[in-house]
Design a protein that fits this description.
Helix content is about 55%, strand content about 0%. The chain is mainly alpha-helical.
Length: about 100
């Protein structure tokens, strides 16, 4: 299990500028949740960042687009695709 952010060693910094009103709002939210300002910000930002990264790596297709994609995969290789398959991949090539 990963330790809560407040219990892990933090060495990297993230500095940002915001209006006094926004800082006060965030501080109030942290206090409402009985958290430090840093722990509150991390508890909100880290899950959002993970979600955004995961969504950026995911492709969503309609049912029609998915069916078209599967049909294309089932088609025989063209000459160019067959030649491309003969080329070693980066993950199969020792570094």
């Amino acid at each position: 299990m990963i330790a809560p952010a407040s219990r892990r060693t933090r060495t990297a910094r993230l500095d940002l500028r915001l209006s006094p009103e926004n800082r006060e709002l965030i501080a109030q939210a942290a206090q409402t949740n009985d958290m430090t300002l840093v722990d509150y910000v991390l508890s909100v930002v880290i899950p959002a960042a993970r979600r955004d990264v995961a969504e950026s790596r995911t492709t969503y297709l309609s049912q029609e687009a998915w069916n078209n994609f599967l049909a294309i995969l089932d088609e025989p290789d063209t000459t160019a695709m067959a030649a491309l398959r003969q080329h070693p991949t980066r993950w199969d090539t020792p570094e």
